[in-house]
Amino acid sequence: MSTQLAVGAHVAQEDPVGEAVARDTSLVQFFLGDPQGYKGPEVRFDGGAAALRAAAEDAGVDLYVHAPYVVNVATTNNRIRIPSRKLLQQHMVAAAEIGAKGLIVHGGHVNKADDPAVGFDNWRKAIEATDILVPLLIENTAGGENAMARHLDRIAGVWDAISSADGAERVGFCLDTCHAWAGGIDLGDAVEKVRGITGRIDLVHANDSRDDFGSGADRHANFGRGRLPADEFAAVVREAGAPVICETPGGAADHLADFAWLRERL
Predict the structure, then answer these.
(1) How confident is the model over 131-147, as pLDDT tens digits?
(2) How do the domains of the chain map onto residue ranges?
């Protein structure tokens, strides 16, 4: 690609390689199966996992998998935590089978009455219980007072807890710009602060936001059409220096417009 920073998009899962080609990009992210359910992963690409892996390698496309939204390994609720761990492992195996560069998972949350420290320790236990076959990238989230990865102090709590876990070196961070903005993290020094906590940023989810700073609302907008200050938005992407996935509305044409908007400002 013509730019030094790889910029791709979240796409439909049936033919991620074709979606990458349509966007003239070298990386895409997608779900494997239902993002809202506990049913295990499925590869909807014709020919299955091996065919998808081969097609991506032939096309020079990096694949990233987003774990289902229902995964919450932090919770004290056994009926959610235990199936979440199982689902995370299943998606880890499936991501490895297609040759994915990473598996992205939301930080989850605890219940209102719970001590956040229990959630942090549940993250440690989840890392120890998971056979981490591809990098596991924990993503900051937009809302919820009891979230594990909305505020910087909570992200620090998770990182402190998992740093002692077996497999911690394979756990990375995915910084979402819309979630940071909505979650009340100042974009001006977000990269510096996050790196100070995690030591790394492995992927950026570049998203504008339809809502105001600190709103807690997770509603993505196409670039330049939301509330994020353009210069601060571009600076986060530039300073992070990691591969970029846009999770913005629309199809290939909309994503190409977002790529162009961002590259102009980088």
Answers:
(1) 999 999 999 999 999 99
(2) 7-265
First to last CA, the chain: 15
Q: Measure the CA–CA gap between 190 and 49, rounded to whole angstroms.
A: 36
Span 42-83, pLDDT tens digits: 999 999 999 999 999 999 999 999 999 999 999 999 999 999
List Cα–Cα distances, 182 to 144, 187, 209, 219, 230, in angstroms: 11, 10, 8, 9, 15
Rounded CA-CA distance 169/162 in Å is 10
Beta bridge partners of 175: 204
* Residue 206: burial class (beta carbons within 10 Å; 0-12, 13-18, 19+): buried
Cα 119 to its chain centre, rounded Å, is: 19
Across 228-247, b (16+ Cβ under 10 Å) vs e yields beeeebbbbbeebebbbbbb
Indicate yes or no: pTM above 0.90: yes
User: What CA–CA distance (Å, rounded) separates 190 from 197?
Assistant: 11
CATH of 7-265, one of 2.30.110.10, 3.20.20.150, 1.20.1440.20, 2.60.130.10: 3.20.20.150
Burial degree of 140 (CB within 10 A; 0-12, 13-18, 19+):
buried
Among 173, 235, 180, 234, smallest CA distance to 201 is for 173
Amino acid of residue 43: V
CB count within 10 Å of CB 115 equals 10
